Amino acid sequence: MIDKQVESLEAAVADIHDGATIMIGGFGEAGSPIELIHALIDQGARELTVVNNNTGSGGVGLAALIQNRRVRKMICSYPRTANSTVFPELYRAGEIELELVPQGTLAERIRAGGAGIPAFYTATAVGTVLEEGKEVRRFDGKDHVLEHGLRADFALVKARRADRYGNLDYSKTTRNFGPIMCTAAACSIVQAEELVAPGDIDPECVVTPGIFVDRVVVVADPAHESHLVKEGRTYP
Amino acid sequence: MIDKQVESLEAAVADIHDGATIMIGGFGEAGSPIELIHALIDQGARELTVVNNNTGSGGVGLAALIQNRRVRKMICSYPRTANSTVFPELYRAGEIELELVPQGTLAERIRAGGAGIPAFYTATAVGTVLEEGKEVRRFDGKDHVLEHGLRADFALVKARRADRYGNLDYSKTTRNFGPIMCTAAACSIVQAEELVAPGDIDPECVVTPGIFVDRVVVVADPAHESHLVKEGRTYP
Amino acid sequence: MSSQSGWTREQMAARVAVDIPDGSYVNLGIGMPELVAQFVPKGRELVYHVENGLLGMGPDPEPDAADPDLINAGKKPVTAIPGAAFFHHADSFTMIRGGHIDVCVLGAMQIASSGDLANWSTGAEGAIPAVGGAMDLVAGVRTVLVLTQHTTKTGEPKLLERCTYPLTGKACVDRIYTNLAVIDVTEQGFVVVDLAPGVSLDEVRAATGAPVGVGPALQHV
Amino acid sequence: MSSQSGWTREQMAARVAVDIPDGSYVNLGIGMPELVAQFVPKGRELVYHVENGLLGMGPDPEPDAADPDLINAGKKPVTAIPGAAFFHHADSFTMIRGGHIDVCVLGAMQIASSGDLANWSTGAEGAIPAVGGAMDLVAGVRTVLVLTQHTTKTGEPKLLERCTYPLTGKACVDRIYTNLAVIDVTEQGFVVVDLAPGVSLDEVRAATGAPVGVGPALQHV
């Protein structure tokens, strides 16, 4: 019987290797899989390349992963936020790399990676510094840049409900990068608030079909980053 | 107040012009907007380019549109089916053009058209006759062909429920090309079985957000192609 | 002259709102552009797109009803109207890149008379570059409106012959709403189409770093 | 020799089923490949992908329960298991093109010893070309299995040095299941890894239009 549930956060991230590329879901705090990220900090993998729209805030979650010096490189669109000091300091000190990608191009590169599209053209960033070094080509009388699909070794994603097949749904704007990251990672690891029976998620409303999910761990009452930041919490 | 409902099938298709490119949803009979197609036959537009996975069956729906000599060219992956004689006869007689596209490439070209991606690379069809005339380029040590986004003037799509914003859901495998065609057409015309109040379709379960839909016409009890074919029906 | 002359922030937002047609799909940038939603003329219905996955943003939530799972691009809690839809990021930017959003309203650091926009980076040494969805919006949205003070806090013009900051996009701005005037970007460069009460064309020209023409409606000025 | 020697259609399908690991995501082509689902060994669970938008196809419906809204790629009514998901065509081919489907089982007109497959067109004058999803499947699915009679109805070999019909894909077939044998496509060409009861290696060679090697398990034959 197919059953993608794993018993613990620890087991879920146990085989993440040094140097891995990891896509981490979330847009700001919405959809950020904080418990999986903290388990990854405990696990100890280093020299990671992390794909996330942002760089975390305060001293928890993604910001804590960076602060604990596990991240060699960030691929993101907006590495600056209100309560974000960790990334800026390391970046200014030259101790972390940044690949800046426009948000829609980042999403499309991830989607392409998951869909077996090695490269595509987009008008986004034409004529800007983010076009530099990229092939530019004219379609329909308009310049476009060539962008490449993005894949990862692992994805860490937060969902609302999951079943044993790995079918997922999400809560409101926490959906953001989760579904496309699940498609683009060799191993997609999901924390869900609830494990339900197959069929409990209406097949018309499954957002991530189970084929894109490898492991599910239940985190019934996930923390909210903004609450932890407000409390001044850090990790570990 | 935004209200995309139009009062009749006739009004829904009134402005389709000769020479238009029309994406028609459906995979075989599942999702085929037969009533909209019949309204288009009544309307009279000619020299159409039609994008559909197939070419219809029997003498109703898409097959009837072709039989009534309204279609100059088909773009599809599989123009042959059990009860399909209309297209083969015209094709052999050289009276209709065919652009044959692998099914997944067809879907991705439509999706790209709707997503503002003018072109992308795929490994599908490399080394086959459908690669001919296309740019081939190596990524990750593997050949890929350049394929172009596909857009249309109109889309005719069958949905299950719609609201006044044009939000849609679908029934089972009738979903197929509908959602992507709605994104790729300048004007998307939808026949839905039911018009519901905004919010009746759970915002987590909206399959086609209303931004991709221009007109909704209610066809409460749509015909099934296979039933009409079994009855030997033709149109008009 | 002060950058605070002419219209207030609220009046500027209201002036933008007047120009957005009924039924439009609209993306409002972070900051002053968010104000526009408060000034939509009665009888018009706009649908707000939030690039992190919501179509149909509603009014601000009551403070005790804020839901950390329901936020906007500025990471602030929002609400969803009945008839809203949630979707993932690739679908969200399909709406943007595919030309489905009718109007976006963005802030600006600099705008060139060619319509070039700079609104994401000063390019300063040590600055953390952060672009978000700005480059996608200006490349994909049909009509790009800019809402900004006419000059910087230190009185430097933001409307220029050429941007000196890194660009967000080339030739992408359609119309600019400042505290002093409403200005179209045309093939002939900046053209004033409306002036704030009490503001003269000369004042606009003095606060602008490029030639400023006059639209038909203001030929009498 | 007759193309009906050796295994029956059902035995061929069962032989394929034995080789598909527990938990696999599987796409079954139209025709004989559909039989494979009936022979999955007890204790294994496979998830069937239907390229027109269903993951989790179930057993055939009762005739009076056929739903024209729920069909497979062959346009025949199917069912969905609890835990199924419906999705649109671009998402469906994301599964295929993106390498997420573990195994597909396809029919064939011709297979070359290089692994080239021809299964969509004879290229004959007047034939209506129709490719469907075959080219996408062979380009994207991780393991491509072919299930076919060893020879055509008129006794011509289907396994050849080179395909003469238009290709579906190059070097894409991993293993071939015929009524006579199970044959791997290797860098050294065709290699028999299993023989149907009562079928000799010489019979296989006689029915094959290319050299046929022998795998380790059959070295004693």
Keywords:
heterotetramer; A: alpha/beta; Glutaconate Coenzyme A-transferase; eight-stranded mixed sheet; 11 strands; globular; C: 221 residues; alpha/beta; three-stranded mixed sheet; 4 helices; 13 strands; 24% strand
CATH architecture of chain C: 3-Layer(aba) Sandwich
Q: What's the name of the CATH homologous superfamily of chain C?
A: Glutaconate Coenzyme A-transferase
Helix and strand succession of chain A? HEHEHEHEHEEEEEHEEH
Spans of chain C of at least 5 consecutive residues whose pLDDT stays below 50 are: none
CATH domain class name of chain C: Alpha Beta
* Terminus-to-terminus distance of chain C: 20 Å
Q: Can you tell me the overall shape of chain A?
A: globular
Described by the principal axes of the CA atoms, the overall outline of chain C is globular
Strand count of chain C: 13
Approximate helicity band of chain A:
10-25%
Taking the sheet with the most strands of chain A, its summary is: 8 strands, mixed
How would you name the oligomeric state of the polypeptide chains in this document?
heterotetramer
Largest inter-chain contact set? A-C, 52 and 39 residues
Give the number of DSSP strands of chain A: 11
- Protein structure class of chain C: alpha/beta
